[in-house]
Amino acid sequence: MNAVNESSRLELEDLRREVGHAGGWAPGPTVVFVAGLHGNEPAGVIALRRVFRDLEKRQIAVRGEVVGLAGHLEALARNQRYLERDLNRVWSRRRVEEVESGQAPDGPETREQTDLLVRIRRAIEHARGEVNVIDLHTASADTPPFVILGDTLRNREFGRGFPMPVVLGLEEHILGTLMEWVTGLGHLGLAIEAGRHEDPRSVDRHEAAIWISLVLSNAVSSSDVPDFAGHLHRLERASSEIPSLVEVFHRHAIDSGETFVMRPGFKNFDRVRAGAPLATHDGREVTAERDARIFLPLYQKQGQEGYFLARPVDPVWLAVSAFVRRLGLPRIVHWLPGVARHPELRNALVVNTRIARFFAPKLFHLLGYRLESLEGRKLTVRERDRGPAV
Ligand SMILES: [Zn+2]
């Protein structure tokens, strides 16, 4: 165990679910931070402790309510990603229903999720303004800090306020994240990746991201934050080499029991050329299918994704897509050939990819739809900005 791990172990002693709580009197937003949904990612928890300590010590005025929650208490105590199943893959609507009605099979993750759900629901119920949920993570590879979000206009506007890159499209490749569930409820939900698990800078960057989240939420005034400019500068400097907007387009999945070994030396967002060897999977070499940026290469034992591939997106695209969404074009897209309203799901469309192959899926991203499933030629897409498709 190295020095960083040792000191973070000390800082995690007496850890409870509620890491901190502030405000509750003056009207304003409700901001919920979750840290350590993965037990080997204590940086966010330590950063939350620092911020709540400062809020109290400096008597900083808080509008609305700020809640800090530790994610996986048992896994944090063991410095392990999870015990039986990944606690950031269990937030599908169906699974949440099972957990809340007591139908989910008992296990360590079910117990953690049950408690988290009670607390997040309570915070939402008490909210008198907007609800913003920020999920704090670190990665197994070296990485500059960045923001992950589901592409609703509200998430996007908020996410662009951070001086670090925004990553789109991950939620189409990873199902059941907390962020996705929160966004589906119609609230703001995003995740922050601060750096490598053991890197002490990850704690500083999470601290910066927490303060910036509080200011962007209008819960705290920037002039009250100790060294706010320094926090902005820290994130900006750490991620200046990375395009400001990146889209994930490929996921390399690992099934249980398979052996996956990433080639050493990849940093997050590194450029890879088509055909470049990336990893060995069950003894076979895996190469990049096209020129791309490597995203979240796996350098730890637990995980269902070996790596992702991503590509930069032109920021002009953001302006264009915001424009067409505000015009209401998503509402008439079913007039296009090969596109029909979904027979059961609200806000969803079924696309015949044989007919609509020239414009799907880029057009649907532009219009604010996420890809839900592809069966044969039947592609289902759902609009993000109109709440859950009940
Ligand atoms: Zn994580």
SSE blueprint and pairings:
Layout: H1 3-11, E1 18-23, E2 30-35, H2 43-57, E3 65-70, H3 73-78, H4 93-100, H5 108-126, E4 131-139, E5 146-149, H6 153-159, E6 166-168, H7 178-184, E7 188-196, H8 200-216, H9 228-238, E8 245-253, E9 260-262, E10 271-272, E11 277-281, E12 284-287, E13 292-295, E14 305-312, H10 315-327, E15 339-341, E16 348-352, H11 353-356, H12 362-366, E17 369-375, E18 378-383
Parallel strand pairs: 2-3, 2-4, 4-7, 5-6, 6-8
Antiparallel strand pairs: 1-3, 5-7, 8-14, 9-11, 10-13, 11-12, 13-14, 15-16, 16-18, 17-18
Helix pairs in contact: 2-8, 8-9
The structure holds zinc ion (ZN).
Zinc ion binds at residues 38, 41, 137.
Please, could you describe this protein's structure?
There is one protein chain. The chain is α/β, with parallel strands linked by helices and 390 residues long. The protein folds into 3 domains: 236 residues, Zn peptidases (Aminopeptidase); 68 residues, OB fold (Dihydrolipoamide Acetyltransferase, E2P) (Beta Barrel); 56 residues, no CATH class. It is 31% helix and 25% strand. The protein contains 12 helices and 18 strands. The strands form 3 sheets. The protein has an 11-stranded mixed sheet, with helices on both faces. Strands 15-16-18-17 form a 4-stranded antiparallel sheet. Strand 5, helix 6 and strand 6 form a beta-alpha-beta unit. Zinc ion (ZN) binds next to loops.
